[in-house]
Structures are given as C-alpha cells and as structure tokens.
Amino acid sequence: MPVHVTKQQVIRLLASSMVSNSPLSDVFLDSPVRPNVGAFSVHSKIQKPEGNGQKLNLNLTLNKSTNEILFAEATTDFFDFLCTFMTMPMGSMLFLLKGNSGLGCMDDLYKSVVELDVKWFNSDNRKATLICPKVAKHHNCMKQPLNLEEECPRESLIDPRLSNSFSKEPLKFIILDDLKVRPLSSASSFSILKELKVPITEIEQEALTVSIEELQALTLLKAALTSPSGALTNGLAASCRCIRHSAG
Predict the structure, then answer these.
(1) Of 189, 231, 206, 229, whose CA–CA distance to 82 is shortest?
(2) I need a surface site. Which of 4, 8, 129, 222 has the fewest CB within 10 A?
(3) Alpha-carbon distance 90 to 83, whole Å?
C-alpha cells in the first residue's frame, strides 16, 4: 500500500526509532509509542580498553537515602568532555558502543548496515562513512577522550579553533544528575538542595577522581543516551565509593 510520508512523520520516525522497538507501526499505524526501557547496565557489552586515561576531579554530593548523585562540582575539563557528546554523529555513537546503545531500533539498523555486503553500497567508503562517520570539521575538541576523527584533516598551519575547549577557562560548573549544567557560584549548592528539597542531613560528599579513558567515557555516553534521569549516578556508579552497586 503506497503511503505518503510527511515531514512530521519523518521527525516522529526518528524520535520513535530511538525509544521504541516498533517505530514503523508507531508512526504509520498511529500506534501508541512503546518505549524500550530497561535497567541500565554499567558495563554491558562495553570492552575495557588498555592504558590509562585523563584524570578528572569531581566533587560529588549524594543523597544517602536514595543512593543517587545529586550533583557534581566539575572543572572545564569535565564540562568539555560532556559537550563532546553533542558533536558526535549518531553513527559514531553506535560505532563506539558496538551497536549496544539501548536506543530503540537504532542498534538493529546499525548492525544490519554492518552486516550488509559492500556490493550494496556505492563504494567501500560509503559503507565506512555510515558505520563510523567523522565529527564535522572544527566541531571536535582537543580534549575529546574517545579520539573520533574530524571530517577533514587540517591543512593550515594555524588551528582554526579558537581554543582547546568549549568553555572559557578557568571556570567551574555544577553538573546535575540529569546532566543539566550551571556555572558554579557560592550559593549554587544550597540553592540546588533547596530546589530538590533534600535536607542537609541526608547528603554525603565524596571527592572522586575519574579516569576518562574509553571505558568510563563510553559508560557515561551510554548513560546520557538511555537514562531519562540519573545519568551521573548510572555512569559513575562503578567508580563511586558511596554508591551501592545495587543502584541503577
């Protein structure tokens, strides 16, 4: 049966493909979206790489009752690391997570493209571009720990990027558990606790040194993609002494 596909349906299909196991039915049969929501697995199908990564310091504030991170005080390095997630093409995320992102049917699409014989593509490069697209030119960050390539090599002797980072330095930020970001001020911690309605007696603090090598970077990336809330808690649970490992 021929179907006229509208722009709105294309947008709905993209959104549904990231949260549902049946995006075509959801969009074209107008079925209710059935989110594919499961428990977050910290190291599910993510292989541990060799070597040590960049060390970043975080000051965590946790809720003892709920066993969750309320927020983290972080430097520009950690903020830059989180910002690199926004510059990655979808295919790069799926490549880094080996097609196990938890993003609805996108994993199935990615794996099927990987398995397709190259004869069905215009060239080897076409398939490679889909499987692992590069970051758009000048949108990468020098501190990016996942080592994704830029679209084109720089040919000039002057780096076209204005600085090594996305933010002004030196600055500190507060990163909430759902990855909302605010500049750090003397009143930030107290105002956030007031907003979250968490009494002082319920909080616990921990200084955490995070080694942003590929394993922890991928764990945080997966948590950011699949956790409607609690991305920091899910992403840092294995590294944080105060979080019991039953969490997430």
Answers:
(1) 231
(2) 4
(3) 15
Q: What is the largest CA-CA distance in the chain?
A: 64
CA 99 to chain centre: 14
Residues 6+ apart with CB under 8 A from 224: 82, 85, 179, 231, 235
- Going by C-alpha positions, the residue among 59, 126, 123 that lies closest to residue 91 is 126
Task: In whole angstroms, give the CA distance from residue 177 to residue 175.
Answer: 7
| 19, 101, 188 from 5: Cα distances, Å | 20, 27, 47
- Is this prediction's pTM over 0.90? no
Distance CA 44, CA 74 (A): 26
- pLDDT, one tens digit per residue, over 19-51 is 777 778 888 777 665 555 444 454 455 555 444
Q: What is the pLDDT of residues 83-107, one digit of tens each?
A: 888 888 888 888 888 888 888 788 8
| Contact present, 54 and 143 (Cβ < 8 Å) | yes
